[in-house]
Amino acid sequence: MTNLLQIIAGVPHAAFVVDSGGTVRAANERCTAICGDEAVAAVPCSFDSFFGSALATTSPWRPSGDWSADCQVLRRGVGVAVRYRPNSEILVRASLAGDAQTIVTLIDADGDDIGVFHRSEMQTRETLDAVMRNVNSAVFVLDAAGTILDCNGIAEQLEDDSAGESAASHLIGSTIDDVVSVRQLGERFLVRNLIDRARDRDRDLCFSTDIQVSPRGRQAFDAELTVAPVRGSGGGDGQPAAILFVRDAAEQRQVWQDLRKIQHAREISRAAVGLAHELNNSATALMNHLSLLDHHLNAGGAPAAAELQSAQSAVRRIRRLGLQLERFSGAEPLDHERSDDGDDVTSPHLLTELVQDTVGLAVSGTGIRSSFAIDAGLPAVRIPGNAFSQALFNVVINSVEAMDEGGRLHIDVREAQRAEAVIVEVRDEGHGMDPRIVQKILQPYFSTKAGGIGMGLTVTLSILESYSGRVEVETEPGFGTAVRLFLPTATSIPEPRERSDDRDAGGESFSDARVLLVEDDPLVRRSLERTLEAVGCIVTAVESGDRAIDVFQTELAGEHPFQLMITDLTMPGRNDGVQLLRRVRELDPDIPAVLSSGALHRQNASSYRDAGFQYVLRKPFGEPEVRYALSVALARAV
C-alpha cells in the first residue's frame, strides 16, 4: 500500500485507491477539491459514499452500487465524463494496480487548483485517448522530467504482473527511465535526455538502429523509439512535454521480410513471363521450320515422317509449358477459351487443362508423382482461370512440401452432390497435421515451416471467397491431408473446340494472297515468312510497326495492295500491334488482320477483338494454325 500511496501522491490530478471489494483505501490531497474534506477524512469508506455524494444529480453517470460493474466501465480505457457541480465536469479513469486494487484518477475540466485541463483541453484529452487505444505501439505521455502522465494498454503490458505492487500496471507517476531501460549498441541512454533534445530541435526523434528496450521485470527486445515533442506545452510539472512511442522491431522486420518475399515473387513472375515469351518465339520458329522440312521430305518415307512427328510432339510440349507459365503469371484466356457468360466463367475444358497444368508446374523438379481423377460432364465454374490457378498452386505447393521423401499427389475433380459447386480435391501422402493446427492454417502468417510466410492458404481462401467459393481441410496425423476447393458452378455452356481441330484448313490454298508480315524477332519472322510462302502467299516481311506503316502506305498507292496483315503484339518503336492496326485502318478500313503473340497477358484478351483483329495466333504455332488463321481472317473480311 505504501508504494501505491507514493504513486497517487505524485499524480498531478485527484486520485484514490479502491480495493477489490469496492472500498476506498487511500486518497491524495487533490481529492478534497472534488470529493470534499469529509469524504477524504472518512477513508477507508465505500466507493459509493466517497465519490457518489460528490456528483450532481444531473451527472450522466453515477455509481451503480456494484463495484465490479462500475470498475469494468471505468477500466475500458474510455474516460467517463461526470458532473460534480452544476457547471463543472471531470473525466474519470481507472487502471488496475497490484493486489487486485484499482487507481481511479479524476481530471478536473475547470479547477486550475487541482487540474490543468480546461473544457476545450478535455476534448483534446478524449481525442488523445481514442488515438492511444488504437495505436499498435506502446505510448507514454511524459513531462519534461520523464514522469509518466499517461500511457495506453500496450504500454501497461510491458510490466511484469508477477512482480507485485512494485511493478504495478498503473504507471502514472513513475519515471519512464525506471520503467524501461533503453540501450543502443549496449550503451544505456536516458529517455528524459531525449525529451530535451526533441523539444530543443522542435522535431520528432526516431531511433531504430541496434536499440534494445528492457522493461522492468521483462526480457529485453529489439525496438524502435520515437520521441515526439508536444508543441505549445510548457512541459512543467504535470504538463505533457513529449510522447514516447515504443514499437517492437521484430514485428516490423517480419513485415519487411514478407514484403521482400512478395516483391521477389513478383520478380519471379515477371521473369517467368519474359521466359515464356522467348520460349514461345523460339518454339514458333522451330515449329514452322519443321513444317517446311515436312514439305521437303514428304516423299522420304516413314522413318523421316516418324522423326518429324517426334520433333513436333516435343515442340507441342514446349508450347504447353509456355502456356502454363503465361496462365500462372496472370494471363487471361483467349476468346476461344472463354465462355459466353463472361470473363469470370471457366469452361470445363479449360478447368481440366488448368488443373493438369498447375499441378504439373507445382511438382516439376520434385520427386512427387501425381494422379488425376477428373469426372466427365462437369459444369462450368464461376471463377477466372488465372485466379483458380493461383489458388490451386498454393495448395499443391503445401502438399508437395508435406511429403519430404517423395510420394504421390492425388487430384480428384468432381461435381458436388449437395451443392452447386465443383470440388477440386488435393490429397497428399504426408504426415498429416494435429487437429489443433488445422484450426490455424487458414490464418494469416501462420506457418509450420521454418522461414515460411504463412500466406499461401490464406491467399487461396481469399481468392475463393471473393467468388463465393470455400475451402475445406481434412487431415489425420500419419495419414496425410486433403484440401478441397469448392468452386461455384455457372450456367452450362458448350465446350469450345480444341486447337488441334484448327488443322481442318490443311488443304486450302492461299495462292497469291498478298500478306504484310510484321515481326521483330528475326527467327520467327524468317520462319513465318517461309511458311506463308509455302501455302501460296506473297509476303513482305518487316521488323517494326513504324516500318510497316511506311510500307503499307507505299503499297496501298500501287497496283497490288496488301490483302492481309499479320503482326506481332510487342515490338520496339512507337507502334505495337494494336496501335499499328489502328494506324493501318485509317489508311484502309477493310484490311483484315491477324495478331500473333506469345505475350497475350499484357492486355485484356477481349480487347484484341475489340481492336479489330479477325483472329489471334497464340505462339508457338506451326503451319496448321497459320492455315486456319488465314482462312478465318480472309473469310471474315469478305
How would you briefly describe this protein structure?
With 638 residues, the chain is α+β, with helices and mostly antiparallel strands.
- Which whole number gives the mean pLDDT? 75
Instruction: Compute the number of strand runs.
Output: 26
The CATH architecture category of the largest domain equals 2-Layer Sandwich
Q: Give a quick account of the main beta sheet: strands, pairing sense, barrel closure.
A: 8 strands, antiparallel
Low-confidence stretches: 111-123, 160-169, 332-342, 450-455, 492-506, 601-605
CATH superfamily of the largest domain: Histidine kinase-like ATPase, C-terminal domain
CATH topology of the largest domain: Heat Shock Protein 90
Span between termini: 99 Å
Q: What is the molecular shape?
A: elongated
Percent helix? 25-40%
Number of helical elements: 20
- CA radius of gyration is 37 Å
